[in-house]
Design a protein that fits this description.
The chain is mostly helical and 167 residues long. Helix content is 72%, strand content 2%.
C-alpha cells in the first residue's frame, strides 16, 4: 500500500490535525463549550460518548474481525475513524478541563493518566494502520497498542470509581 496515495491516510491525518486545532481553540477559550446540557457540561457528554464508543466497539471489533473476516475492511474503518472521532471529543473535554482558572482547577489524577494513554493509543494505531515506521516490527506495534488498550480499560475503571468517590 502506498500510504501517501491512500485517502484514508489523509482523512485520518486530517482528523488528527482538526483534533489539535479543536484542543487549542477550546484551551484558549476562543469557542465556549463550558455550558450545561441537562445536568452535565457539554464536554462531559463529549467524553462519555467518546469513551463509551471506545469501551464498547473495541471488543466488538476484536471479536467480529475473527468471526467475519470478509467484513474486516469495514470493521477496521469503523474502529479507526470512530476512535479518532472519540479521541477528538475526549480531547475537547481535556482541553476544557485544563483551561479552567486556578481556583477551580480539577484534580487531574486518573484523568491525566487516561489522557496520556489516549494519544499513545492513537499514535500506535495510526502507525499500525498506515505502516508508519517500517523499521519497527508490526508485531511490536501491535503488542504496544494492545498493552495501551488494556491500560486504558484498567485506568477508566479506576477513574470512574474515583469519580464516584468509591476509591
Amino acid at each position: 500500500m502506498q500510504t501517501w496515495k491512500d485517502g484514508e491516510f489523509w482523512l485520518a491525518t486530517s482528523i488528527i490535525f482538526v483534533t489539535i486545532a479543536v484542543s487549542i481553540i477550546v484551551y484558549l477559550r476562543l469557542f465556549n463549550l463550558n455550558f450545561f446540557v441537562g445536568p452535565f457540561r457539554l464536554t462531559h457528554w463529549f467524553t462519555w460518548i467518546g469513551t463509551l464508543f471506545i469501551l464498547i466497539y473495541t471488543p466488538i471489533y476484536n471479536v467480529a474481525k475473527q468471526k467475519y473476516p470478509t467484513k474486516l475492511s469495514t470493521l477496521l474503518r469503523i474502529h479507526v475513524f470512530g476512535n479518532l472521532f472519540s479521541f477528538m471529543l475526549i480531547t475537547a473535554h481535556f482541553a476544557q478541563q485544563i483551561s479552567r482558572p486556578a481556583e477551580s482547577f480539577p484534580d487531574l489524577g486518573t484523568g491525566l493518566a487516561l489522557y496520556i494513554v489516549m494519544p499513545l493509543l492513537v499514535l500506535t494505531g495510526y502507525m499500525q494502520r498506515f505502516s508508519v515506521l517500517k523499521s519497527i516490527k508490526p508485531q511490536t506495534k501491535r503488542f504496544v497498542h494492545i498493552a495501551l488498550a488494556l491500560t486504558f480499560y484498567i485506568t477508566i475503571v479506576v477513574h470512574i470509581l474515583h469519580g464516584l468517590n468509591i476509591i
